[in-house]
Structures are given as structure tokens and as C-alpha cells.
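Supplementary Methods, section 5.1.

A reviewer requested that the exact input to the structure prediction be made available. We therefore reproduce it here, unchanged from the version used in the analyses.
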Amino acid sequence: MLKRFASRLIKPLLAAGIAAALSLSALLPAAALTEQEQKTLTDLNSYFNSVKTMHGDFIQFGPDGNQSDGKFYMARPGKVRFYYNKPSVLDIVADGKSVSVRDRKLNTQDIWPLGQTPLRFLLSDDIDLRKDTNVTNVLVEEDLITVTIFDKTKFNSGTLTLIFDAKDYALKQWTVTDQQGYDTSVAVYNVVSNGPTNPDLFKIDYLANARQNKN
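The structure derived from this sequence is encoded cell-by-cell as follows.
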């Protein structure tokens, strides 16, 4: 069950973009954003580009209420890891060029190119939400900022919603909406920014994947 929920979040995010919950005609172009909204995106860019490493805890909420949790680690550019606590057996790694979703119990993994996933925006060396993404909405509230992005890849198209703290611009949560309109969300907490990191966390075993494909 946990693997199915993680797949709803990670596999659409990593492999197929994000399945569209809104029709393309219903989305406003980025040019329609107000001057204040554009400034908010500029401030978010500044925050992102000041953070080179990050680690903390995450909790994932499935569309029918089930939850899973674990640890995450990030090192820009291009590297991230999500290690799910038991009973989940998932381990998700981006090494700068590819993204691997590994089943620790079955010892199998699927690999996709990082450049064909929305993660390329958040893990790039120089993040520019105004230039490199199609932001369709920016909602600024007293405590939170919500940014909605329409992303198009060769696999599919859809929406990604990012939620930030309005005071320090720290990323708090993101939500993927699937083709049926179901939401899967990940919230991060106990986050440490610009701390030390271990490069071994972001290694993908490509030889294991080659052996798997031969069987």
C-alpha cells in the first residue's frame, strides 16, 4: 500500500511529469502574473540559490489518507535522496543525471533521466522560477506562499503545487495532482540548510540495473 502511494507521488513526478488535473486552456500564462507576484518569484529564486545542501524529515500523504515517512537529503546541483522508513521499502535517489526508484525488499530499481522530471527545476545549479518554469499562479498569504507550475515533458503534462514559508521562503510542501484529480503531498520538517552532506548518499548502482534487465 505504501509503495502504491509513493508511486503516485514519485513516479508521476520523476517519470511522467505530472498528470494533468486542469486543462491547458484553463491555465493562465506566466506573463499574466502581477508585478508583486513576479517579485515574490524573484525572492524565492534568491532563497533557493542560497541553499546548496539540505536534509531533514518528510511525511507523505496519500489521496485516501494513508501516510508514510522518512529522511531526505539534497545537494544541488542535481542530487537528492528520499529514504522511506519501514514498513515502506522505497529508496529514491537522483545523482545529477538520473533518478532511481529502488525497492529495498525486492532489490529492484527503475531509472529515468533527471532532465525529463520536474525535479530538474528544484535541483538545478541556478534556479529561476520565472524563466525556467511555467508558473500559472502565485498566492501570497500571511504565513504561506503557494506557487502552481504547469510542466510539460515528452512523457506528459500537468501541475505541481509548491508551498513556502512566507517569512523565510523555505520550502514546506509540494503536491502532485494525478489525472483523476487525486492529490498526493509531501511535507518536509526538521530541515537543516547548508549543512555537511555525504556524496555516497547519491550514488545509483547502474550495474545492478543492467543485471536486473538481463534477467
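The longest strand covers residues 183-193. These observations are discussed further in the main text.
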